[in-house]
Amino acid sequence: MALSPVLLPRLLPPQTGYRLAGRGLWTSPHLFTVSGDSQLLPLPGQARVVICGGGIVGTSVAYHLAKLGWTDIVLLEQGRLGAGTTRLCAGIVSVAKPISIECKMANYSNTLYEQLEGETGVKTGYVKTGSLCLAQNQDRFISLKRLASRLNIYDCFFVMPEYRKLNLHIFMHFLLSLYFILFLALSHLPSLFLPCSYSGVQILERTTVQQVLVEKGHVMAVETDRGSIECEYFVNCAGQWAYELGQASEMKVSVPLHGCEHFYLLTKPLQEAVPPSTPVVIDMDGRIYARQWHGGFLSGGFEKNPKPIFTEGRNQLEIQNMQEDWDHFEPMLTSLLRRMPSLESAEIHQLVNCPESFTPDMRCLMGETPGVSGYYVLAGMNSSGLAFAGGAGKYLAEWMTYGYPTANVWPLDVKRFGNLQSSRTFLRHRVMEVMPLLYELKVPRWDFQTGRQLRTSPLYDRLDTQGARWMEKHGFERPKYFVPPGKDLLSLDQSKTFYKPDWFDIVGAEVKCCKEAVCVIDMSSFTKFELTSTGDQALELLQHLCANDLDVPVGHIIHTGMLNERGGYENDCSVVRLSKNSFFIVSPTDQQVHCWSWIKKHMPSDPHLHLEDVSWKYTALNLIGPRAMDVLAELSYVSMTPDHFPSMFCKEMSVGYANGIRVMSMTHTGEPGFMLYIPIEYALHVYNEVMSVGQKYGIRNAGYYALRSLRIEKFFAFWGQDLDAFTTPLECGREFRVKFDKDTDFLGREALLQQRQDGVTRRFVMLVLEDHDTELDLWPWWGEPIYRNGQLAGTTTSSAYSYTLERHVCLGFVSPPPGPEGLPTPITPDFINRGDYEVDIAGQRYPAKAKLYPFSSLFTQQKRRKDDLELSNLQGK
């Protein structure tokens, strides 16, 4: 039978005995305790940890916990072990991932799967191949080059082979000869089960978790259809059912994911059997992938119109037996035959419908939930479960054992989401966008289009009518820039490029206004907490949590980090002392759940100490520029000069008719100006008054793109981009914000003292690109490799075009090479100042000047001298 929409019997029958993962892997019962077919093992009355989910993710967690010395581990599976998505997945492990933590997880998984046969004696079916990533257009080619450049950091490589000599059944039409083919380290495992070959793991099949019982905010027990198990920890690895399980628990836990049907085709062996070592073919422009399978091919893809599924009330057997849909698969089949026309005569073996779960941002969910202590999640693998399972299980096991993983997993932390992302409608609409995006061409600063306008400022409609173009952060709409009247709105909305963007001049005008007149930026999305107490409890808590000294006079603003025991940043915030026992805490937008959880975790149980999230109570306006003081002075009839309103100070005052406005002399950019925190009922009035009075001073709206340019040229680090839980104040030049001179203990103090004694081994630097043509060359964005004297020394964390310096500025970390024994080497200012630096953008290296302080003042002086010289030449002097 040739490739055509013909329905055939199921390829993968229900499992029997100890057949795991449906790919021919038979294991011996003595490797671990598991319930068999004839009888169920008795349910234990208690355990240290209960893991729900017997797929590769759940078994990976159990495996790594056992390796770290845990015993009394119980893994529960509602059906048969490895019989869900794990059994049906395509079996591809790719290390080519868009963010570094995903690359690390996939690299570890690759290594683990390769080692398992020797470690356990179990045949895993591991075959190491390569992959061919095809580019049908110039933008895809650039995207692959950028990825290859960044993957060099993880020992991946980029070559241009003579692909026409490869017998891969690939039709090369539409692939222009100048396009490279990317080889990446991939593998596929016909056998997908990760054996828990360590003592202390008990696996119970045909046992359904109904809910998790909680007492005083901590996991107490797990209730199943066969009884209850008392436990200290619970891990939700339920895959498709993770969302429902979280909602069904005694205290609801948000696990924002949604299932979609995912199809792939299996052929019978070709006349000339395809060898197992054949590279995986990935044609993202055609939305398909293909790999060898038993002498034939397995081919699937990520269509533009995915089919979401609901799992409420559906058991594992129903999910396993989801029906083929040839009409739905037809566009991918057409694309496959266009790319590999030799398959037209191949016989079909099966069209498999394999359900996968997807998250709102295409990244998996990992970590301890914010509301319930001891409740962990590892789910939402976005069709990369096999690639991530090994590394993700390792990091989660470390998290549960040590209190933190050994790598920065914030991009995957479940606390990056809140309850606002748990709407079923939101999730259903978002995953219909997310699944196609896996193969979509994503240029820098692209935005999701679904689930928008969920959280908005009271000024949203007003700003929208004035040309605001929006981006979303933690569900909150924020202005990127404002399109002036008369501009081509359509072209700007559709602007997608790796080069100079169409909004370049617009943002430049906003930056210029910030420096010469006054701009207003709506920054209402920032996280805002109030901490109050009847006595000194609030101050004592903040002194323990914060590295900087909070025992300051009322009205003072302190910029500080909240550190962990290792000295790394858990939060980077501004704290205002409103009164003796009241503090106002301002943090980044996406810190709302994480920061709340961190503070609550360390708060004593004291009825006289109160923490409140007031993010929704205040609209925040940032007035930036030298004329900001004139605008506010006219509206408040109060002098706003530095003599009367010093820097980093807060006063509650009237603005226009509105009273009780918290005015702070800070802008988060290093430019002069003020932040206004306005009760929401006054927001529109204050904004209208500011814009009206500001007309005579040249006021205009501005967005976050201008803010980004200003803060980067001032060498300001930002949490979540430049700072994370593994970055210390000493590594980013913030030692002056640490109260070493105070006899006050705080989280991270001992670690920082030790680091100061030993010396830091990496340093946050500012790099200004040279010989880089803004008009013609590719732009840096983030994640680009940094080279020093030709050797890889670090990566960029953020970048922006500086309209002041008229050059691109990159921020990032550099480290010296390891010492003779492979140990980290302390870094010195000479190492930074005497090196020749380059930044690699898509394989092209550009020289850069590295500094430990902002370039602004130096380049401003040089530019002024140049302008003066040009003026004198024009005047004939």
Automatic annotation (TrEMBL):
Alphabetic keyword roster: Membrane, Mitochondrion, Transit peptide, Transmembrane, Transmembrane helix
Pfam name, any one: DAO
Residue stretches making up the FAD dependent oxidoreductase domain: 48-399
Subcellular location: Mitochondrion matrix
Domain of life: Eukaryota
Annotated ranges, domain Aminomethyltransferase C-terminal: 762-855
Keyword presence, Oxidoreductase: no
GO CC, any one term: mitochondrial matrix
Domain GCVT N-terminal intervals: 459-742
Segments passing through the bilayer: 170-189
Ranges for domain FAD dependent oxidoreductase central: 403-457
Family: Belongs to the GcvT family.
Subunit structure: Heterodimer of a catalytic (PDP1) and a regulatory (PDPR) subunit.
Annotated function: Decreases the sensitivity of PDP1 to magnesium ions, and this inhibition is reversed by the polyamine spermine.
Protein's UniProt name: Pyruvate dehydrogenase phosphatase regulatory subunit, mitochondrial
Species name: Sphaeramia orbicularis
